[in-house]
Amino acid sequence: MLTVRGLTKRYGGVTAVDGLTFEVRPGAVTGFLGPNGAGKSTTMRVLLGLDRPTSGEALVNGRRYGDLPRPAWEVGALLDGGAAHPGRSAWAHLLALARGSGVPRRRVAEVLEEVGLAGVAGRRVGGFSLGMRQRLGIAGALLGDPGVLLFDEPVNGLDMDGVLWVRRLVRTLADEGRTVFVSSHLMSEMQLVADRLVVVAGGRLVADAPLSELVAAWTRSRVVVRTPDPGVLAERLRRDGAGVEAADGGLVVHGTTAEAVGDAAHRAGVRVHGLRLEEASLEQAYLELTGTGVEYAAGRGGRDGQEEK
Ligand SMILES: Nc1ncnc2c1ncn2[C@@H]1O[C@H](COP(=O)(O)OP(=O)(O)OP(=O)(O)O)[C@@H](O)[C@H]1O
C-alpha cells in the first residue's frame, strides 16, 4: 500500500510535485501516467526516501521509507535500469545488493531465474543490452520478495519481447496480491497493463480512477451516417435525445450507438447509404487533459479541492 498525501516537492524555483494526494492499493497494477516532467520520478523518489518532501508525506505501508524496519522486505523499485557497476557480473551485483539489505544469499539465484538472467549471471553487466539491464534492475527490486513494487518507466527502450515480458511480470505480481505501481508517459502502454490510473500533469493530480472509468469518460465516439434524407433522420434522432450535426452527404451523431442510428433510420423510413462508428482515441483525450492539467485542476478548486478527494 502506498499513500501520498498533500505531497509537494520543490527544487529551488521548480515545483516538481504540487499538492499530490492518492493511494495505491494491493492486488492491482496502478499506472502512474503523465507527460515528461509531470513529477512521476520525483514522487517515486520521495516514496523511496531518496528525496525529502517540501511538504506533505509519502508512505509505504503507512510509514515513511526511513522508518521501515526492513525496507527490502517491504518495497522494491526499478528507478534506473542502468545503475549497476559495468565491471561487475549480474550475480556479483545482486549479491552486493542482497548483502547491503540483509537479504539471504539464496535469493540471488532465485531472482536471476525469475527474470530470465540465470544463464548470463556470470557475465559483466557492461556488456548487457538495455533489456538485460532492465531485467537486472527488476531482479534487484524483487530480491527481498517485497509486497510493494515501484517501476519507473520499465518498458522504456525495450524491444517487443522485453515489453511483453514486463507486462506479464507486473500482472503476475499484482495477481499475487502485491501493490504494483508502474509509471509511464504512454497512455497506450498503460491501457494494456493497468487496472487503475493515477494521472498527473505539472505535478498535480488530473485523474485517479479505474482504467475502465477513464476509458468511458474520455473516449468520445460519434456515428457518421450517409443518407439522402438527412432532415427526416436528424429530426428523429434529436427526438431520441442524440446530438446531431449536418455533414457532407449526411449526419454526424453524438451520444448514441451505430445500432441506435440504424434503428432510428428504419423507424423513420429513411434510406441509409453508409453508417460508421468513429472513436476518438483515449491517447488524444489524455494528451488534451494533461496539456491543460493545471487549468483543469484549478477549475475544480485547485489543490485544496484535490486534497479533499
Ligand atoms: N534534482 C532535481 N533538481 C531540479 N529539478 C528537478 C530535479 N528532479 C526533477 N526536477 C524537475 O522536476 C520536474 C518533474 O520531474 P520528474 O523527473 O519528477 O518528472 P517525470 O514525470 O518523472 O518525467 P520524466 O519521465 O521526464 O522523468 C521537472 O521539471 C524536472 O526538471
From TrEMBL:
Which UniProt keyword terms apply here?
ATP-binding, Nucleotide-binding, Transport
Among its keywords, does the record have Nucleotide-binding? yes
PROSITE patterns (UniProt xref) = ABC_TRANSPORTER_1, ABC_TRANSPORTER_2
- State the Gene3D superfamilies in the record: P-loop containing nucleotide triphosphate hydrolases
| SUPFAM superfamilies membership | P-loop containing nucleoside triphosphate hydrolases
Q: Which domain of life is it from?
A: Bacteria
* Similarity comment: family membership: Belongs to the ABC transporter superfamily.
Designated name of the protein: ABC-2 type transport system ATP-binding protein
Query: What organism is this sequence from?
Result: Nocardiopsis composta
